[in-house]
Amino acid sequence: MRIDIISIFPQYLEPLNLSLIGKAQSSGRVDIAVHDLRAQTTDRHNTVDDSPYGGGPGMVMLAQPWLDALENVVEQSPKISTRPRLVVPTPSGRVFTQAIAGELAQEEHLIFACGRYEGIDERFFQQAVQGGQGVNANVNANVTVDVDRISIGDFVLAGGEVAALVIIEALTRVIPGVLGNDESVTDDSFAPGAMQYLVEGPIYTKPATWQGHDVPEVLVSGDHAAIARWRRDQSLLRTIAVRPDLIQGSSAEQFDDHDLQVLASAGWTFSQGRWVH
Ligand code: 6GU
Predict the structure, then answer these.
(1) pTM (2 decimals)?
(2) Which of 142, 152, 269, 275 has the most C-beta neighbours closer than 10 Å?
């Protein structure tokens, strides 16, 4: 997968060279390039923003440098057959989930537009979706992308860079081959499938007794079925405690009979198409 990131603070994206994503780059599973939006400006002050039409606080990013940057990125990136997806981190996007991470992980080419200030002039997106001849005389690429506005939660950041890091880390670890075989992503919290509406429960490592606290007996029993069942029970109980909204958004079909017993023992029963608790 190719990932291009456009930002006025390229250094914000340096952590992408570390750890899991750094390794995914070295192994060729992802190819990441960061581009400085200011490189597109032609005036003496490298202007990227101006005051909003209609008034109001803050500044709005100019459409032109963004279109020029997008054209350059599409022009420079290795030939890719599919239409790139332009991911725009913004609090006014759809809320990011593990399912969306899986969806993005299937794309061949993602371009992240990390805005700052109040955001980017809307006409940049209109133009990016529509395509047509670019105004940049040197490049004149015919750029069309799918625009995907994504929020990482109900709070406001100072810019899209940190959100792009979050989204890229989540999608990279679900690209096949990025994690080892023994680090299955299907058991993760929110993983599509059996864990979709659940968070993981507690985990333990050595020593078996630490500061007077014992590891739960079942985990040292060697009984794999009992361990799997215990973990699932813990997951159900923790989800009820910290994320009842996840259970509320699920239906009884997500759960087996034993799950439903555990939920019932915690006061949650599914009746006439909804959860009662
Ligand atoms: Cl994706 N960007 C910004 N700037 N703020 C956010 C966000 C994204 N998600 C939540 N707040």
Answers:
(1) 0.94
(2) 152
